[in-house]
Amino acid sequence: MQINIQEFLEEAGLDEQLYPGKRVIKKLPQTGEYKSHCVVYDWRDPSKICIEVKAGLKGKDLPPETLQKYPPSLQAPTYIEIAVQQ
């Protein structure tokens, strides 16, 4: 399947420019404890774009004792990798 990456990122709500070598973290704060999360757009590998939903607002892996307080949907790895053809 082929997609237009620029259109995909616009529909995903990314406001910043993404280009090879860049990593962008879009924070999605939610009301209530242990509900806020972020989407990490990572294009540091020029051959693919990795888009990942992570618990917390910093885009880092949380320690297990903190991660277990988040909903199960944010505890499991949730990502998509898009191969880039040049």
Flag low-confidence runs: none
Number of helices: 3
Sheet-strand content, in percent, reads: 25-35%
Structural class: alpha+beta
| Rough outline | elongated
The main sheet comes to:
4 strands, antiparallel
The tally of strands reads 4
Q: Whole-Å distance between the termini?
A: 15 Å
Mean pLDDT: 93
Q: Bin the helical content.
A: 10-25%
Biggest sheet strand order reads: 1-2-3-4
Order of helices and strands: HEEEHHE
Q: Supply Rg.
A: 14 Å
List the helices and strands and how they pair.
Blueprint: H1 5-12, E1 23-28, E2 37-42, E3 48-55, H2 64-67, H3 72-75, E4 78-83
Antiparallel strand pairs: 1-2, 2-3, 3-4
List keywords for this structure.
single chain, about 20% helix, about 30% strand, alpha+beta, 4-stranded antiparallel beta sheet, about 90 residues, 3 helices, elongated
Architecture overview:
By secondary structure, this protein is of the alpha+beta class. The chain is built from 3 helices and 4 strands; from the N terminus they run H-E-E-E-H-H-E. The protein has helices at residues 5-12, 64-67, 72-75; strands at residues 23-28, 37-42, 48-55, 78-83. It has a 4-stranded antiparallel β-sheet with strand order 1-2-3-4. It is elongated. The two termini are 15 Å apart. 7% of the residues are buried.
